[in-house]
Amino acid sequence: MKNNVKLARIKANLTQQQLADGVGITRQTISLIEKGKYNPSLKLCLQICYRVNAQLDEIFWISEEEFNSEENN
Amino acid sequence: MKKITDERLIMKNLKNIRIAFAVQSLGIFAILFYEFLQGGIDQMRNNPIWLVFMVTTVVLAYLSMNISVDSERTLTQSNRSLQISAIVTLMISLIVGILTANTPGYGIWDGAIIGGIIFICGLVPSYYIYRLRKRKEEVFEEDEDE
Residue ranges of the HTH cro/C1-type domain (chain A) (predicted)? Predict the structure, then answer.
């Protein structure tokens, strides 16, 4: 699923490894989340939000049209 | 070894275990089938792997009950279904017990033991399902109260 994790991470001045260490996951998982190839659980989404000082909807919200088009792909 | 905290890797690990389980089950199945071909059903049952296979099947069946109860769309009346299951199990065990007792070479005690075992083996899963449904009903009531 498309998201703004990469943007928020760069804004917070964190590398993938630093963010991964901060939330207790691997750098590979952060990379997959940023590419939209892995859907994190709500718990992990919140942990990422806390680390990059952002709200959940700023990072993970997408419109219904975008959602449907992603589902169809 | 470090404990895995990454949810993606934990999930992947579980999927790997699932594949390994499938391979193992296939292997067990193949061994049992080979034994069956070699010396019939008795030789197959004498192999301790048969016990492993049966225990695994029973555990899997019990775990599946949890899922089937959750996937029921409407709430089943748990008391009623337990009563029906108990009556059906009792009838089946009685019939098997009587038939066993009347078989030449077997006595009334054999019939009672076999009937009793069938009754207990049938009642335990019914009671387990009943407990699961009861718990589900409680959760449902909590949702209604809110």
Answer: 5-59
